[in-house]
Amino acid sequence: MCPGTVATTGPKYAWLGTGVLYSAGWHRNTAILSQGLKFVAALLVLVTFQWLGELAVWLTGWAIPGPLMGMLILLLALTFVDRPMEFLDQTSGLLIQNLSLMFIPISVGAFFLSTDIYQQFPAILTLILLSTSGVILFMALLIKGLEKHD
User: How far, in Å, CA of 70 to CA of 88, rounded?
Assistant: First the structure.
């Protein structure tokens, strides 16, 4: 191998993907597709579906959030695609694991709320508590029903 050329060999790195490594006029097949490129590709897919959701909401004039419509379009795409998109699983899992970090800007913005919001705070807090309890109850019943089915 020429100086400055890095390649990985063997089955240990086969999950990274394969490609052709060119260096000093020669080439060889090797595992060079890094995990970072798969992460960027998965983010591009997720952002594309979010954009498609925004576009669908804008074209239809429906009063639902564009990212929600994008998730529904992604769900339909994943349901009807023949081959699975495993690279989305890893990236989505990473985003969900770090979801709490995405709420920091919202939490900081809460310090700058107007007095109108403060007057409605008890109603907002009640709604948050009721909806969270409802979601927990729904998920418990869903899991219980799925366990009975299996």
Answer: 15
